[in-house]
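Class prep. Sample record?

___
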Amino acid sequence: MTLVIALGGNALMRENERGTAAEQLANLRRALPELGPLLEESRVVVTHGNGPQVGNELLRQERAADEAPPLPLWLAVAQTQAEIGALIAAELRGLVDRPVACVVTHVRVDEDDPAFDEPTKPIGPFYSQAEAEELERDRGWKIVADAGRGYRRVVPSPQPREIVELDPIRTLLDAGTLAIACGGGGIPVVTRDGQLRGIDAVIDKDRASALLAAALGAERIVFLTAADAVYRDFGGPAEAAIDVLSADDAEALLPELPEGSMRPKVEAGVAFVRVTGGEALITSPVALAEHGGTRITR
């Protein structure tokens, strides 16, 4: 059985944390053991987000610009993909009895994707409304409210079209290796003059994970997040967790889901289920251990 596990940002950083290496390792040591039986499947790929980390990397570069040349966003994605992959690999090697390898993954997008004209992907830390207004004015960033948690910078998030390192990932799985891939949604690249070139964007890691899972012929994909399930009327008087959704019912629910958090997971789950006929599970590490969460099925 082939399984893709998409780690949410809370597996690495918690609220009010700065995102130090020590904090991220401590969080992984709490989250990864909860995966338990999932890691025992015969073919496993772990993916992960990088929103806070890539935002912090851009801040470092901006503040050190007089001393060291800043890098474009796509290379910041590459840096954080390798950084987080190394942290996850270090912890997984103590949990599984097989080799673990991190694949720095490129993901092809379309250069004319409308997302480049309408940034939506949150990156970096949360800001107050006053801070957000100042940053928009002084730096020209686009900043939006993020699921009631504060304000965050948003950047283009084009649709993933192709996993460039798909064959090497498949080779690792065939050899019995647990692979870490598509970190942060992958390094965004476009085709120009027959060559792949980096482009400034951040691909949604859930959509890239679903694309990878479908390309590998996975039977199941698990999206791990802070919420224990998908909820109807989240935060409202009729709030209720959902155990099972058909792909059609999940799609109908999309308009009421927060665009920056739960909606991409449900969209990605629906896409995976419709292409493969497999199952998508959205849950938290704790709920996973208790067999909870929301299953999306055909």
